[in-house]
Specification:
This protein is mainly beta. It is built from eight helices and 41 strands.
Length: 666
């Protein structure tokens, strides 16, 4: 029997065992006076990430994870990486120049295959389509995180091939004043891992006018361990892995009008370059972005809403000067205009249609360079039409939709989606089928004008059951088929980049989650498995093991819990288990003077964390304090490059003592 069938059998049996065993305690649950409806409230929360129109997690036409404000606070997470590690199917790897990127269900998603939204702003940079994680944005400003573990291209376009991460910050009503937060974390050596300050102010004024302003500034180091490159050169990462954020934003709403701006300046210091350590000195690699948005929801009637929207994005990503290895300095801007209409002919039907146009302009600002087909400038445009229909029928809820896009360089892409969902009492199921695409970026085109979009087909099935008002279990299976994957590579000797369309890569797998939530405590347990089925990308493959892809573990499990010891004190343990992974870690010069990369099987890693959260600290109302330890076992985790690109695994942090102090001024 193939591995995937064995795993699915185990998950199915586990699902049935949960149902049988937990029914036995349901009667006792009903008798407990401490129980609350908190889990039911959670399952009834409306989210928009998978459908634009609000749906509950169980009805939403996607495999969706919702992370609430309470879960973020109680976990003691220091950055978004800590939070996303708790999500099934999510992993991390290293790209180049110290950049840590996202993996989804075994696939490397860092470069344009997952879209990250911050209050509607698309954070992916436009030259390579990447987003750098770790100490980037303040968790203290976040209300909730909505994640589609699957395609979202039909709604979000060409960066939403494998996942959508929608981050929603606190509203003016929720704030009604100023919130401040200071956090500090110390690694083992000793060396601080981060020190950050967050400010967030929101106010509701008369006549439906409200606004929110924020600022976040900090310093961090990725690790305090020793990094050794493929050739044996080493450096202490406490002296060459800085990640220093600064960002600020302003949002204003007045009746149906919304406008917002966001400034994001992320400065990093690194020595690992494209894999070869710059022995002379650390080098700055900086990412600078400016965003602006304005939209108006015009209610034509009680059934029709028309929304014109304008977005502007200006970025200078990957800026690197004064390096002995390579320098880069390009700027890019995008103007996006969108016009959509939402029609509700009845309470059970919603039709959303729209058209979107964007124009990209890039400029090579490096002296003596002309990156874009012999020119210092490149310009492209894209026009897309999209449609989504939601029908709440007596038998099923049906979602059908599609997006058609036409790019001035590589032509047209068409991605349909179809979903059947239904909640029947305590039981729900989802049948999902979607196509998606990964849109080539400006640098992809510059290095290969013949590059074409990736085309992906994803099939998913989910079933879930609310065993009692405090217990919920869900399981899903997925099949991902990526055709014409865009693969990145760099010649370590010349630093010349290249992009090519390969034939295909397929993964399939399963994910399982169990939630237990009471008034005073909760526990979430999940497990994820993937298996490579048909991979023709040589730089992704694990020699001798066709079931795995480089960098990502086939098995991952996590536990996240919170226990209220008193009204003002909670203890919050969490655990993440990552099974064995494969990656290249050194060169063998025995038979080849240039060196042959050597593959290594990395041992499983367990992250154990414990965090204490105090409300009304030292009897001061609205003052909270948190202290804990991350990576209690001091596990030696490394970010592995998920392709054979000449970069040795980059060390993660050692054991960290973390603290946080927050205060709300009213």
């Amino acid at each position: 029997m193939p591995k995937i069938q064995k795993v699915l059998s185990v998950i199915l049996m586990s699902f049935l065992c949960f149902c049988a065993s937990l029914y036995a305690v349901e009667a006792a649950d009903k008798a407990d006076d401490l129980l609350s409806m908190s889990l039911e409230d959670l399952l009834s929360m409306k989210i928009t990430v998978a459908s634009v129109k609000g749906n509950t997690v169980r009805e939403s036409p996607g495999i969706v994870t919702l992370i609430t404000r309470d879960e973020i606070v109680n976990s003691g997470a220091q950055n978004i990486t800590d939070i996303l590690r708790l999500v099934p199917g999510i992993g991390f790897g290293v790209d180049v120049q110290g950049a840590v990127g996202l993996g989804v269900r075994g696939n490397w998603a860092h470069e344009g295959k997952a879209v990250i939204l911050w209050d509607g702003f698309e954070l992916n940079e436009l030259l390579y389509s990447c987003l750098q994680f770790n100490n980037r944005f303040s968790l203290d400003q976040i209300k909730q995180i909505e994640i589609i573990r699957g395609p979202g291209s039909a709604i979000y376009g060409g960066f939403a091939e494998l996942a959508v991460i929608n981050i929603v910050t606190k509203s003016a009503k929720e704030l009604n004043g100023l919130e401040t937060a200071v956090n500090y974390a110390q690694m083992s050596k000793p060396a601080y891992s981060r020190q950050n300050i967050s400010l967030l102010y929101g106010k509701e004024l008369a006549n439906s006018l409200n606004f929110v302003g924020s600022a976040f500034v900090g310093q961090s180091r990725l690790s305090d361990r020793i990094h050794t490159d493929m050739s044996g050169n080493s450096f202490n990462m406490s002296q060459g892995s800085a990640q220093d954020p600064f960002n600020s934003s302003f949002k204003l709403n007045y009746k149906g009008f919304e406008t917002a701006v966001l400034v994001d300046r992320y400065q990093t210091l690194q020595r690992d370059e494209y894999g070869t350590i710059d022995l002379d000195k650390p080098v700055n690699t900086d990412f600078e972005s400016y965003y602006a948005m304005a939209k108006y929801n015009f209610n034509v009637s009680d059934k029709i809403t028309v929304t014109p929207k304008f977005n502007y994005k200006f970025q200078i990503p990957w800026k690197q000067m004064n390096s002995n290895y390579s320098n880069y300095f390009s700027a890019v801007e995008r103007y996006t205009s969108d016009l959509s209409a939402s029609y509700n002919p009845s309470e059970k039907v919603n039709i959303l249609a729209g058209v979107e146009y964007y124009n990209d302009n890039a400029e090579d600002k490096l002296e003596g360079s002309a990156r874009y087909n012999g020119s210092k400038n490149a310009s492209y445009f894209n026009i897309a039409e999209y449609l989504q229909c939601l029908f709440n029928l007596p038998i099923f809820n049906v979602t059908v939709g599609a997006r058609s896009a036409n790019h001035s360089q590589f032509g047209s892409s068409f991605v349909p989606r179809f979903a059947l969902t239904k909640v029947i009492g305590n039981f729900h199921f989802k049948v999902l089928y979607s196509k998606a695409y990964r849109e080539p970026s400006i640098e992809n085109i510059a290095l290969n004008p013949e590059i074409k979009p990736e085309n992906t087909t994803v099939s998913e099935l989910e079933a879930g059951y609310q065993l009692s008002k405090n217990q919920f279990v869900t399981a899903n299976i997925f099949n991902i088929n990526i055709e014409k994957p865009i693969v990145y590579g760099v010649d370590p000797g010349t630093a010349i980049e290249a992009y090519y369309n390969y034939d295909k890569v397929k993964t399939q797998g399963a994910e399982f989650e169990y939630r237990l939530k009471y008034e005073k405590w909760y526990t979430t347990i999940n497990y994820a498995y993937y298996e490579a089925m048909d991979n023709t990308v040589t730089s992704y493959e694990v020699t001798g093991n066709k079931d795995e892809l480089l960098g990502f573990s086939p098995h991952k499990a996590s536990l996240n819990s919170s226990f209220s010891l008193t009204n003002n004190l909670s203890v919050n343990p969490s655990l993440v288990y990552i099974s064995e992974r494969y990656g290249y870690y050194t060169y063998d010069y025995t038979s080849n003077p240039a060196g042959d990369p050597v593959l290594k099987k990395f041992d499983p890693v367990t992250f154990a964390n414990l965090y204490f959260h105090f409300n009304n600290f030292v009897s001061v109302s609205d003052l909270t304090f948190g202290i804990g330890v991350y990576n209690i076992l001091d596990s030696e985790y490394a970010f592995i490059q998920p392709y054979n690109g000449g970069h040795a695994p980059l060390q993660g942090p050692s054991r960290e003592v973390v603290t946080k102090l927050t205060y709300k001024f009213k």
